[in-house]
Design brief:
- A five-stranded mixed sheet has the order 5-4-3-8-9. A two-stranded antiparallel ribbon has the order 1-2.
- The chain starts with 13 loop residues before the first strand and ends with a helix.
- It has one domain: Glutaredoxin (3-Layer(aba) Sandwich).
- The longest helix has 12 residues.
- The protein has 154 residues and is α/β, with parallel strands linked by helices.
């Protein structure tokens, strides 16, 4: 598992979004990127997180942020999730968990006494130079946009 720290160079990535458009870290060069990793489309926590970012999208954009969500769901699931919740940002279909692993967002989880591999919900703020400015490993799903805006204002 990768242990990235604030100040590290963000790992390069490449993948397809919900529409089959290739997205890579290079696409965001010179821009601030909110790269958020979440477990599964249309589940309560993930929906709350995505909707928080959607509801504050214009405010985040005013602060100069681009947004890109990543989960192991398929392009089709992402299309449905975006349509159902009117999400204004792209979602990367990381079905092979390559981007998740590069960012250390794939690892061992425990639920109901069972151990399994899955997505470790986290968000990385990447600055214009491609460096990790902030890492959120404890994401407040219902107010993630507020959590980001507050942290980046200080």
């Amino acid at each position: 598992m990768t242990h990235l720290k604030e100040g590290d160079k963000a790992p390069d990535f490449k993948g397809l979004d919900q529409d089959g458009t290739e997205r890579s870290l290079a696409d965001y060069q010179g821009k601030k990127l909110i790269l958020f990793f979440y477990p599964k489309d249309n589940t309560p926590g993930c929906t709350a997180e995505a909707c928080s970012l959607r509801d504050h999208y214009s405010e985040l954009r005013e602060q100069g942020f681009e947004l890109l969500g990543v989960s192991p769901d398929s392009q089709k699931k992402h299309q449905n999730f975006i349509a159902k919740h009117d999400l204004p940002f792209p979602l990367l279909a990381d079905t092979e968990q390559e981007v998740l692993k590069a960012y250390g967002a794939w690892g061992e989880k425990k639920m109901y006494g069972k151990t399994y591999m899955g997505v470790l919900r986290s968000t990385f703020i990447i600055n214009e130079e491609g460096e990790i400015e902030k890492i959120f490993s404890k994401v407040k799903t219902k107010d993630h946009a507020g959590q980001i805006l507050e942290a980046m204002a200080s």
